[in-house]
């Protein structure tokens, strides 16, 4: 039993010496070959740590990509469930308040670009005061130079 305890103490002292050497202490007693082995051990440890770090990062990236893909599927499903159109902007041209389909309309100086956005309509006051709301579109205009 005394021998086992002595072996454990020797192993403990050896490990503590190795730790001190890796921290840069107690290097005076080492010859060139021992220093070279210590350098190789430290390079191998750095390489192992770097590989492990890259694996953790790659796993995190894959997890985030899966979450984003899942959220997009949920969003697409909700759009279909509520019969909402895909969010594609609608554009047109206006010349003094009149809509035109052709981009090359005559060289008028008052040509404006439009973007139609869905928005609720105000209550229809002309239909007997009924307070019904419907979906229409709000118009944003941009002057073309």
From TrEMBL:
It comes from the Eukaryota. InterPro entries: TF_Kbox. Residues 1-88 form the K-box domain. It holds the Pfam family K-box. GO terms for molecular function: DNA-binding transcription factor activity. One of its GO terms (cellular component) is nucleus. This is K-box domain-containing protein. It comes from Opuntia streptacantha.
């Amino acid at each position: 039993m005394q021998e086992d305890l002595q072996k454990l103490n020797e192993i403990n002292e050896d490990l503590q010496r190795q730790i001190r050497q890796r921290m840069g202490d107690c290097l005076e007693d080492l010859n060139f070959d021992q220093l070279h082995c210590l350098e190789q051990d430290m390079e191998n440890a750095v390489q192992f740590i770097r590989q492990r770090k890259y694996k953790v990062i790659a796993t995190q990236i894959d997890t985030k990509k899966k979450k984003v893909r899942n959220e997009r599927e949920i969003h697409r499903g909700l759009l279909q469930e509520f019969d909402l159109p895909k969010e594609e902007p609608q554009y047109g041209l206006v010349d003094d308040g009149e809509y035109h389909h052709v981009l090359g309309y005559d060289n008028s100086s008052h040509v404006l670009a439009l973007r139609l956005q869905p928005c609720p309509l105000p209550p229809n006051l002309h239909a007997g005061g009924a307070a019904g709301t419907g979906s229409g579109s709000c118009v944003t205009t941009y002057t073309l130079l």
